[in-house]
Task: inverse folding
């Protein structure tokens, strides 16, 4: 094989789903946000061939504490697992008037499985599981869990996610705010709980 044949032809399209994502755990305290990058846990990382085919990913959530976020890769996409605090859960209904689709009625078959069509868009209220890709142009929003005024956010910010590309904002259930470039809520992927400690992303029915 020649050296030239080892490279893709000029002008070949880039598959955005093949971006590399890092597993991150973000612990959120009252004073701010702390982020720690950790490698994939080999016990739940499928083979490259399996990932390309959309294999389900098993995640151990037993060590997660309220206010923490874990990111794993599924089908080349970052999937967020957020363990919401009781205060964060209690605040979700108060945001409905500010949201573009508070009841997740837009594209439900694509974005929100039937079991997640509720206020928290979740099976278990404390856990939000969502694909971390903005519905506008495919950027990945960043965590903005700290409350209150911050750059690019309103003074009464209640915590959630900010897309750094064009300013779309989402609450802690992945619901998009009104008058933002993003047209839809974040996608909730198929998922199910194998136990209190194990979450399976990519399947929602037992074989």
Result:
């Amino acid at each position: 094989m020649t050296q030239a044949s080892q490279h893709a032809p000029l002008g070949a399209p880039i598959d955005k789903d093949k971006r590399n994502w890092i597993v991150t755990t973000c612990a959120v305290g009252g004073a701010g946000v702390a982020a720690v990058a950790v490698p994939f846990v080999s016990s739940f990382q499928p083979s490259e061939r399996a990932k390309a085919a959309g294999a389900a990913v098993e995640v151990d959530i037993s060590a997660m504490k309220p206010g923490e976020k874990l990111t794993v890769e599924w089908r080349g996409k970052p999937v967020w697992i957020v363990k919401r605090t009781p205060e964060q859960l209690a605040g979700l209904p108060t945001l409905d008037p500010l949201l573009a689709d508070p009841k997740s009625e837009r594209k439900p078959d694509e974005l929100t499985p039937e079991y997640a069509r509720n206020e928290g868009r979740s099976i278990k209220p404390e856990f939000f599981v969502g694909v971390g890709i903005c519905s506008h142009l495919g950027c990945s929003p960043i965590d903005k869990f700290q409350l209150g005024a911050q750059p690019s956010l309103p003074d009464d910010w209640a915590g959630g996610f900010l897309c750094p590309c064009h300013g779309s904002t989402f609450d802690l259930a992945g619901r998009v705010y009104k008058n933002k470039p993003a047209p839809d809520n974040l996608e909730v992927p198929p998922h199910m709980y194998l136990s209190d400690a194990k979450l399976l992303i990519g399947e929602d029915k037992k074989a």
